Amino acid sequence: MSTATQSLRPLMDPLRRAWRASPMPGFFRWWGGELLGLLPLRWRAWFASGADWYLLQHSDAQWTLRRSGHAELLANWDDSVDNPAGDARIAPVALDAALRNVDREDRRLALLLPPAVVLRRVLALPLAARDNLLQVVAFEMDRQTPFNVAQVYYSARELATPAAVGRFNAELVAVTRGTLDPLLARLRAQGISIDAVDVAVANDRLGVNLLPPEQTPHRVRPRRRLNLALAAACVLLLFAVLGAWLHNRQAALGEMQAEVDSMRSEAQQVVALRQQLQDNAGAAGFLAQRKKNTVSMLSLLQDATARLPDSAWLERFSVDNTGQIGFQGQSQQAAKLLDTLKDSTLITDASFQGSIQPDPTTGKERFYLTARVHQPTVGKPKSSALATGAANGGSAP
Fold first, then answer.
1. Is the same domain home to 101 and 157?
2. Are 331 and 364 in contact (CB under 8 A)?
3. What is the structure's pLDDT at 397?
């Protein structure tokens, strides 16, 4: 085990314990089994590959090899007194022959110790000890066992059994170095590298590792590297897909914005045309209304001609924008002109401007008379009539 791995172990152990205690491992096992059942038979063995544990046991100078969880023997060989060093060719050949169909990357070997040579103690520890379980049991070694830390190889595992409030149960597993070192030396002499040292429990293992960290073999895992590369590729593809999706959405948004801008421009043009039409219609209506409510010049001339006597003649006749009428002329009896215009429906408020003066040339009286155009009465709005009726205390008819 490298120094970097050892330094990260205190950080990784709490994460591993939290992961095992969560429901996620069970979910992923179920999900993986369901997905595996959908694959063809040829592919299932390849996708189902993983750590495949094989168990080595030594008893009476006899080595046996079994698969974890199975009782049948896969291989056995001897390192009896007749062959004290163990032939370095026999063991690996027998081992390779038994495991020839197992992927070397998935193959794991564990040396199982008989329960009789292993010391196991259940400890009730505070919950705070979970993060540093190995260090805690190392401190407890002198008190819980007849050995000190330098005399044993040890491990610890958390138990699922109920404990007192604020505590949890853990199991200390230890074996003396004098028991394990000779077995490890025999395996090294035979050229066999193991991944763990555990305790035999029926046809399986207990689930601890008593192998010293410095003797744990370093494995090159090309499949893990491939998986990491594939995972990185998947992440890159995911970001690429998200980027493409965002780009497409941005492009679609740009097209929609351009279409909205075009429609807005057309709508503004329509509004401008409608406003222009309303303005033109209003101007035309205003002119028509003003024409309707304005007395024509021809009518004024006709009315003045019909009412003025034949002995009177005009030198000047003017009408300004305010409806002011000016009469300038001569008449034999200018003072009677007001009586002739009194009953006019178009000319009203007639009066002389200045004094009447005789003209020695014509023998007539020169006058300047002003009047106003009598605008035709326009019907009062309905609202005005209602207001008038309300003011008089009555109701509008």
1. yes
2. yes
3. 28
Whether 177 has a pLDDT exceeding 80, the answer reads: yes
pLDDT tens per residue across span 286-335: 777 767 767 778 888 888 888 888 888 888 888 888 888 888 888 888 88
386 located within any domain? no
The pLDDT tens digits for 364-382 are 888 888 888 877 655 444 4
Gyration radius from the chain CA atoms: 59
Residue 89, class by beta-carbon neighbours within 10 Å (0-12 exposed, 13-18 middle, 19+ buried)?
exposed
Name the burial class of residue 216, with classes exposed (0-12), middle (13-18) and buried (19+) by CB atoms within 10 angstroms of its CB: middle
Q: Would residue 366 count as lying in a domain?
A: yes
Answer yes or no: is 393 within a domain: no
Instruction: Provide the CATH number for the domain around residue 348.
Output: 3.30.1360.100
Of 336, 348, 335, 334, the C-alpha closest to 376 is: 348
Residue 393, token pair as written in the block = 């205390």
Tell me the CB-side half-sphere exposure of residue 262, using CA atoms within 13 A.
Answer: 6
Could you tell me if 368 and 352 are in contact, meaning their C-beta atoms sit under 8 angstroms apart? yes
Backbone angles phi, psi at 244, to 5 degrees: -65, -40
The answer to whether residue 387 sits within a structural domain is: no
Phi, psi of 384 (to 5 degrees): -65, -40
**Structural domain span for residue 32:** 1-48
Token match 């044993």: residue? 152
Could you read off the pLDDT of 13-45 as tens digits, one per residue?
677 777 777 888 888 888 888 887 887 877 766
Euclidean distance between CA atoms 26 and 32, whole angstroms: 10
Global pTM reads 0.52
Q: What is the 3-state secondary structure (H, E, C) of 171-182?
A: EEEEEEHHHHHH
107 lies in the same domain as 196:
yes
Count structural domains, the chain.
4
Torsion of Cα atoms, 230 then 235 then 241 then 242, to 10°: 170
Query: At 71, is the secondary structure helix, strand, or coil?
Result: coil
177 C-beta neighbours (distance < 10 Å), count: 14
Give the residue ranges of DSSP H helices in 294-381: 297-307, 337-340
User: Residues 6 or more apart from 71 whose CB is under 8 A from it?
Assistant: 203
321-363 residue pLDDT tens: 888 888 888 888 888 888 888 888 888 888 888 888 888 888 8
Q: Can you tell me the distance from the alpha carbon of 351 to that of 85, in angstroms, rounded to the nearest whole number? A: 155
